[in-house]
Amino acid sequence: MELKKLIASSYGEADKNFAGHGYDIERAVQSIVQANEEGVGLKKFLQIHKDYLISKNCSSEHIELQLEKVKNIDFYFKND
Question: Is residue 18 part of a domain?
Fold first, then answer.
């Protein structure tokens, strides 16, 4: 799956919250792996997330909160 699509699918459909459900977490993990395989650095990875959220008309406050979650490794584990 394309990196941008993996990133988009790591957010909730309605609330656009990052890695809030099991499926979202699986996609978030896959996106990290794929980003590394493609040589995408953190700055670009975060920009792809931001661009997605902007395209969904999210507020700047929501975007900043979600980017903090993306940077927090705790959100990539289902069993904690």
Answer: yes
CA atoms of 74 and 20, how far apart (whole Å): 11
- The structure's pTM equals 0.94
Residue 51, domain extent = 3-75
Specify the DSSP class assigned to residue 78: S
Give the span between the Cα atoms of 55 and 72, in whole angstroms.
23
Per-residue pLDDT of the chain (80 residues; tens, 9 = 90+): 899 999 999 999 999 999 999 999 999 999 999 999 999 999 999 999 999 999 999 999 999 999 999 999 999 998 76
In 3-state terms the chain splits into helix, strand, coil percentages (rounded to 5) of 65, 0, 30
Is residue 80 one of the residues assigned to a domain? Answer: no
Helix axes 42-55, 22-37, angle to 10 degrees: 130
